[in-house]
Amino acid sequence: MRVLQSVVAGLGLTLACGVATAAVSSQEADELGKSLTPWGAEVAGNADKTIPAYAGGLPASTDPAGWKKGSGRWDVGPFDQEKPLYSITAANYETYSKRLTPGTVAMLKKYPEFRVDVYPTHRSVSYDKSWLARCKDNAESAKLSASGDAVQDAYSCVPFPIPKTGTEVMWNAALHNTFGVSSSLTLSFWLVDADSNVTDIGHVALNYAYPYRDPSKNAGSTDYYTYELARWLGPSSQVGTKILTVFPMDWVKNQQLSWVYTPGTRRTRLAPEFSYDTPIASNGGALNYDEPYGFAGQLDRYNFKLLGKKEIYIPYNAGRMMFASPDKMLAKRVFNPDVSRWELHRVWVVDATLKDGKRHSQPHRTFYVDEDTWAISAVDGFDQSSNLVRVQYDPLFPVWDAGTTAQGVLIYDLSKGTLYINSMSRPTDYVKSSDSLGDMNQFTPAALTSSGVR
């Protein structure tokens, strides 16, 4: 227990990136699978029992009434019969303020229709044994480069189950197990303006491959940890557009590369500008390239400080929420509280401030990283005048028959009064995960061109 106490105490330190970090000691790593889960979450619940102890997550046999195995849809879940414990509104938020992010407080103050319905907390995630088998080895072997731009000697499980710096937490978030080793899904994108008008800005077929997560590989066997292929199915002006993006394990050795195929020219071109705070034009400019699922891309523009852990309310077990149909997902200018689900969970808090000489539309961001998934669950973004301007939520839900999780994206632009939604809201939208990489030949610029038809 003393070892755990010393580890947790160390987590409260605010440490910046830029310092080479080595693996933890064997004594610390021995807590994995004991007081800590294999991937580093605290097994115990909290003191007032509002967060339960981790008990293995949902079993693979979970089969809620109405759920169809293999459908890729999670409209129904094992907790749908539960009722909210209480609701947080603009009238009573101060009672719960210590467990609310600044972004959630700002939302409650700005939008009378916004509400946080708090449900019982369920630590519902679970993982494949082959993924878990690497966690302790990673803890003892993984290393972060001096610049923070590369991870070495790790694969499959998150590299830093017992993190000591904010940069390590951000790498865990980049390499965590969401959507499995590979996945195929279709997503819908919507933009809600300040007058509650809804614009359909995209319907996209996505294929992901995550070589880093493949337990059959070895550390150093891949230069890129994620391959992402997006193909636009709608609206009509975007049909046939494709974007291929790859993310490197070493940002000094390799670059993030993006290629775009446009059906009008039937050509594929390298697009180096598709990164950082560049707005994604095919998403209506409402989402920046480094914002999907909390953060995507190189860490070099920020100093990341680890502020320790905090218990906060976040959208969780949110299958019903992320699969809500267009007619049910909104209440005026906000995502409909009636289909939303919030739970109390422990998160790692990472504060990101802009490095000297660097530029970004959000020079200060705070990331809230769920301990059970290592997924970024919420982000607060501040402008040059330290005004809170963007509030992001990335609702999580378990993909229980695949030993993984999935997410959506909600971004409120407080300065414009708009809401961006990335969800599975059409009847044809789905999420399917696999424990193998599948056909990697599709993730090449040549494949974009050869398969490109309008």
User: How would a textbook summarize the main sheet?
Assistant: 14 strands, antiparallel
How would you state the average pLDDT, rounded? 93
* Proportion of beta-strand residues: 25-35%
Say what the CATH topology is: outer membrane lipoprotein receptor (LolB), chain A
What proportion of the residues is helical, as a percent range?
Answer: 10-25%
Full CATH superfamily name: Lipoprotein localisation LolA/LolB/LppX
CATH class: Mainly Beta
Q: Between the first and last Cα atoms, what is the distance in angstroms? A: 62 Å
What overall form do the CA principal axes indicate?
globular
The number of distinct helices, counting runs of at least 4 residues, comes to 8
Annotation keywords:
single chain; 454 residues; mainly beta; outer membrane lipoprotein receptor (LolB), chain A; two-stranded antiparallel ribbon; 30% strand; disordered N terminus
